[in-house]
Amino acid sequence: MSEAFTIIRGGEADLLIVCDHASACVPTDIDLGIDAALLEQHIAVDIGVAQVAPMIAQALGCTAILGGVSRLVIDLNREVGDSGLIPVMSDGHVIPGNRSADPAQRLMRFHHPYHRKIAELLDGMTSPFIFSLHSFTPRLATRPEEARPWDIGVLYNQDDRGARIAIPLLEAAGLNVGDQLPYSGTSLNATMDRHAEANGIPYLGVEMRQDLVADAAGQARFARILGSVLHECRLRLG
Question: Which GO molecular function terms does the record list (predicted)?
Fold first, then answer.
């Protein structure tokens, strides 16, 4: 057991599902100084990910690692030293408890163990493939005029092998697909840059739209679609 991550064991396939923002957990000894209701919103957790990832892991017989704490405690998808690593502001909400946080302590407690475990899991695979699963809010409070019509976004940096296979398959499944949307993987891809791109490991990174995976039916739908797409990616790139 670790407070930094949860492991889902669906089987021994050389496929690792990585979910940096799957948890809204804030340890009892950390006071963020915010309304508890905010922990149910997108600023704290990638809604739907903790439900979709285990379904895919079971369907494809693989392992998933879910980040164990809220992104408001520490953002596991940020580089060490990044200004957003321990946020003091998120989508218009002040996080006052983080102003006095000790970055080194939170890195040692959460960030380093999480990334060490990812590396360990990948080292145990012969021909690994990584699936990075996130979700995005259809509407930012600080940018209400910004349209976010996509059902799913596909993110990558230099290695777009998985993305090029996945995008037409996702479109064929009836999804409105954003290529490098709503974010760009060239700037928000820290975990995949570290574990996939730096090691030549093929991967696919996606962002599901949160209102589409907020209930059981939507979660099952996306798990089914993404499981099929991942299976095809592995066949073509394995």
Answer: hydrolase activity
Instruction: Provide the residue type at 131 as one letter.
Output: F
Q: How many angstroms separate the CA atoms of 56 and 215, rounded? A: 16
Region 5-237: CATH code? 3.40.630.40
Give me Rg for the CA atoms of the chain.
17
In degrees, rounded to 5, the angle at the alpha carbon of residue 110 between the alpha carbons of residues 75 and 11 is: 95
Structure tokens at 76: 């596991």
Query: What is the per-residue burial (b if ≥16 Cβ within 10 Å, else e) of 87-105?
Result: beebeebebebbeebeeee
**In which residue are the tokens 């669906």 written?**
10
- Residue 236: helix, strand or coil by DSSP? helix
* φ, ψ of residue 8 in degrees (nearest 5): -110, 120
pLDDT digits (tens, 9 = 90+) for 192-231: 999 999 999 999 999 999 999 999 999 999 999 999 999 9
**Residue of 168, 177, 161, 172 lying closest to 129 (CA atoms):** 161
Helix (H, G, I), strand (E, B) or coil at 30: coil
Beta bridge partners of 132: 18, 205
How far apart are the C-alpha atoms of 178 and 131, rounded to whole Å? Answer: 17
Instruction: Tell me the pLDDT tens digit for each residue of 130-168.
Output: 999 999 998 876 677 777 899 999 999 999 999 999 999
